[in-house]
TrEMBL record:
UniProt key word Membrane: yes
Protein name: Lysine exporter LysO family protein
Alphabetic keyword roster: Membrane, Transmembrane, Transmembrane helix
Native organism taxonomy: Bacteria, Pseudomonadati, Pseudomonadota, Gammaproteobacteria, Oceanospirillales
Pfam families xrefs: Lys_export (PF03956)
Native species: Billgrantia zhangzhouensis
Transmembrane segments: 6-23, 35-51, 63-84, 105-131, 143-163, 175-199, 211-235, 242-264, 284-306
Amino acid sequence: MLSGLLIVLLPLLLGYLVPVRHAGVMSVINRGVNASVYVILLLMGIGLAGLDELSRELSRMGGQAMQLFAAITACNLAALWWLSRRLGLRMGSSPVVKDAPTTKLAALLGSLSLVAVVAGGILLGLALAWLGGDVIFQHAEQWAEWVLYVLLALIGCQLRNSGMPLKQILLNRHGLAIATTLAISSLIGGLLAAPLLALSWNEGLALASGFGWYSLSAILVGDQLGPVLGGVAFFNDLTRELLAFILIPLLIRRHAPLAIGYGGATSMDFTLPVIQQHGGVACVPIAVVSGFILSLLSPPLTLFFLSL
């Protein structure tokens, strides 16, 4: 267990130790993160193409992903609604940002493009197999692991240079409360979903520990439990992001903790512009803190549960 945690957390830690002071270098790092995500998802699609009885396995994967998503979402929404009532945090008086850096449509299209990359990987894998290139299936998983290590190092740099000091994170009680509630309720949902998916309790917890970080959860779970469950983790976390884009505009003014928290780890990056646009500038530090904490929790929790 310790060796697996070390292998994954070491590049994250090494990246976190690197200060970046040049805007151009930071821009390259950000592009590298995006490119790494697409490469990992493409390789995941190629790995899925190597499955026997592909159509049956894809159908099973879709059904399991929806069951897992339903269980976790029900727990998340109930817990975050309770937290919203308890905190009484409303953004009604917060100024709305009219010129936020993205629109809901652009964000949704960006998420759907990730599904297209996985589908493209499946088609590419099938084409290579037809041409006699079955050997790629043997290496796709290993290549994805190497790209993951690069991705983690780059994400470590992003976290270090996000402008969010550790003291500010620890003192933001709203962000801490939202992240804690989302994490605990997600794990409860994973436990409830495990028997429905014919999985052990620790496997259900591992699948629930992505908190929206689909590129990481897909490769970590897929490496230990196979490409089908890796796909389940991916689609569960990606569907979270898609639903978050719908919930944020509807709920953030009256139930800010629910709207911010449901995005999980994505609230510090992909869903942050939509949070900023509809909730105002006061939501931004809360969302960044919540997403930051969940991003730090996801890798060790996933690996810990997979090792049990």
